[in-house]
Amino acid sequence: MADSAKLVVIGAGPGGYAAAFLAADLDLDVVLVDPEENPGGVCLYRGCIPSKALLHVAKLIDEADHAADWGVAFGKPTIDVDRLRGFKDRVVSKLTGGLGQLTKQRKVRHIRGTARFTDANRLELDLVDGGTDTLDFEHAIVATGSHPTAIPGFPESERILDSTGGLDLAGVPKKLLVVGGGYIGLELGSVYAALGSKVTMVEMTDGLLPGVDRDLVRPLQKRLEKACEEILLSTKVVAIKEQKAGLKVTLEGDDLDKPDRTYDTVLVAVGRRPNSSDLGLENTAAVVDEQGFITVDERLRTAQPNVFAIGDVVGQPMLAHKASHEARVAVETIAGHKVAFEPACIPAVVFTDPEVAWCGLTETEAKERGIDVQVARFPWAASGRAMTLDRDDGVTKLIIDPETERILGVGLTGAGAGELIAEGVLAVEMAALASDLKLSIHPHPTLSETMMEAAEVFFGQSTHVYRPKRAKKAKTS
Ligand code: FAD
Question: Each residue of 18-38: pLDDT tens digit?
Fold first, then answer.
């Protein structure tokens, strides 16, 4: 007889393990299927966590270099790649090991393998230690995540890496080409630049971080221009040839002095694709769109009523915290609660230096959609705390509805912006008004004051930004 479960969760990333854990907390009988020894998914093994461990070290290297300006010189750092990799791997195994413990404590049954639907109530399991099995279920949550997009036509080469290969940190290439100016390319490119690689970044569109407000990107671009060899915008990689001396890359773009260049390594970071094709979804009524995302409603239910899907496999933004939040909605729906996935905003953070973070309506989106907004900007050059950190290259901006004075969106660039955006999320989610932010006393001296002062800018009353009053018109009689 086939094994059975009330709920099976397929994939143990931040969507899947959050779902399985909550299901157990709600006393649902739950099985979690994933090939890894412990939960974690891309985020913990090959994404958010290893990249942030490396970015932490990159920031340290950068700050140590910068410290000479403050009278403290450390000299040129020596990089022990094996120890650095060891640090990153320890962080990953500590966290995933902890999740393994939590899985046991919650009595979630973890089956190591991959799952495939044979019908709407049965899975075929390919077990990691060999053999196959079947599992019958009442409800399923698909949380199989995504994988890096490859560029067709590029040769198979050990020197052409995707984000997973980049994070493996096999070594520090002398000359690295990063293809793709999205957040993954910028984060990994920053790591390698700090470790000593001569990094060239290529982005097909005319700006880094396509879609993000330009005033938020500018301070980052300025700093990256110093850290990198070259940043080539509106430029495409059209061919790569493996040669003895390295990878010969042919570029196509407007301002190129020479189209052919040679690199030791090419890191491709041009987006991610959902893992939906090998799941046997065709044996259920679930629908997959032309990009491969599983179609779900606001409760994360697919067209097959007992099958739900969450995380990267259902669409943008492909972010861990979105996956975990969707997990709650799917599980609570299965448990019979009345819930829906309707966040007012989903924050995004680029963990470069400076960090870029935003949530809710952006200025770019407001323009595109013809929404009338007022933008209140507070430059970090006017922040005492930013000065003490010698990091005044930041900006805090609020996107405000001029009629209701409600905060619709928040954008931040600067050191630690990723932490600061949480206040913006709360403001947008709670439908806070600019006056709420203005009247909330923020601790001094902190970067969080820039949120309060941006609200003060909206009212023309920022303590640290002087706005000359408009001359009053002389009365005419
Ligand atoms: P995943 O984490 O992708 O997990 C899916 C799991 O399902 C995997 O373990 C996979 O092996 C398993 N699986 C797949 N098919 C099957 C099957 N048939 N049967 C069983 N198991 C299966 N997001 C952030 O929010 N912040 C960041 O800073 C951040 N940084 C990133 C940096 C990098 C370099 C990358 C690549 C990604 C980053 N992300 C970040 C994105 C984040 O990793 C994903 O959004 C998140 O992991 C998605 O979670 P998920 O649960 O949908 O799936």
Answer: 999 999 999 999 999 999 999
CA angle 35, 39, 43 (to 5 degrees): 100
Torsion of CA 127, 130, 134, 140, to 10 degrees: 10
Q: Distance (Å, rounded) from C-alpha 180 to C-alpha 218?
A: 17
Ligand 1 environment, Cβ below 6 A = 10-16, 33-36, 41-43, 46-48, 51, 114-115, 143-146, 163, 184, 275, 279, 311-313, 318-321, 323, 351
Q: How far is CA 458 from CA 101, 402, 451, in A?
A: 49, 9, 11
Give the count of beta carbons closer than 10 Å to the beta carbon of residue 438.
21
Q: pTM for the whole thing?
A: 0.96
- Binning the chain into helix, strand and coil, the percentages to the nearest 5 are 35, 25, 40
Radius of gyration of the chain (CA): 25
- Residue 475 pLDDT > 90, yes or no? no
CA of 234 from ligand 1 middle (Å) equals 29
Q: Which listed residue (56, 321, 442, 444) is catalytic?
A: 444
Clarify whether 444 is annotated catalytic.
Answer: yes
Please state the atom number of ligand 1 nearest to the C-alpha of residue 311: 52
pLDDT at 467: 81
Of the CA atoms within 13 Å of residue 133, those in its CB half-sphere come to 15
